[in-house]
Please model this.
Amino acid sequence: MGQNSRVSFDRRAVLRDSLSVSLPVGTYGAAFGAASVAAGFSVIQTCALSLLLFSGASQFAVVGVMAAGGSALSAIATGGLLGIRNGLYALRMAPILRFTGIKKFSAAQITIDESIGVALSQETRGESAMRFGFLSTGIGVFIFWNFFTLVGAVSASSIGNPSMWGLDAAVPAAFLGLLWPRLDSMKKKYAALASAILALGLTPFLPAGLPIIATVVIALFFGWRSR
Amino acid sequence: MNTLWIATIGASVLCYLLKLSGFLIPNSLLSNPVLVRINELIPVVLLSSLVSIQSLASKTEIVVDHRLGGVLAAFIALRLRASFPIMMIAAAITSAFIYRSGI
Model:
């Protein structure tokens, strides 16, 4: 075990890193499962989102926009806009991962915040450690996230009125929790505040879902300027 | 097929294609600093507008109700450096309490 001469990194250390990320993140799947059912999605649709979409922020966005009365198109667009960063992660990691054929197509599905985060944190251990960290974290989150989604969805569907259990506040709370660690500069805080206000201001005038997408202009505005 | 299935399958296909595109196209896009900055800001603006809409909007109306109480509890929990599950529980308990007491 571990004596393979081609692999010189400590697999156990990488596995420990990936498990310490994938297990806690996976348990948040229960929050998604509950929120999705509270938003009106069936247990099967909820599990389909975790299996097929498999990107927390986009999944919450899809159920959030539908719960707010938005169209399917608004939900798909908002989920897609939040999914752009996964494509950019893949862009950055592709030269390191160097996957070919079918492996590339499966790796794409597990290209998420956590697998990329752990892979990048293994930089000092070398590229094979980064590849191993990417795979073990991606697969780990996939297993835990889908298991806990089912647990959350089934429990939520058996408790009746979601408001009685605070589940309708769980969706915006989850968004706030996902937003929080990203607010690492004053510029991002201003952008967040401006978009919260713009979305509310547009709410009476646009069909549900569109005010959320409209806030992309704030990302363009703040992103265009270098400071 | 109902609209929830259309949203589920449509968003899944789109998000998968976005992930896959990164493996299929050359990575010269990353050298453009404006695109990198905009990409960092997109999750910030979308998540923030989702917070405000989900706390205060009902279809096309602004409504102040139990949900806002729950989100304020989540905000306080995050300010106190609570973990994600604790923050979610604080939001749910507060919102459920306000809803049940019929304030």
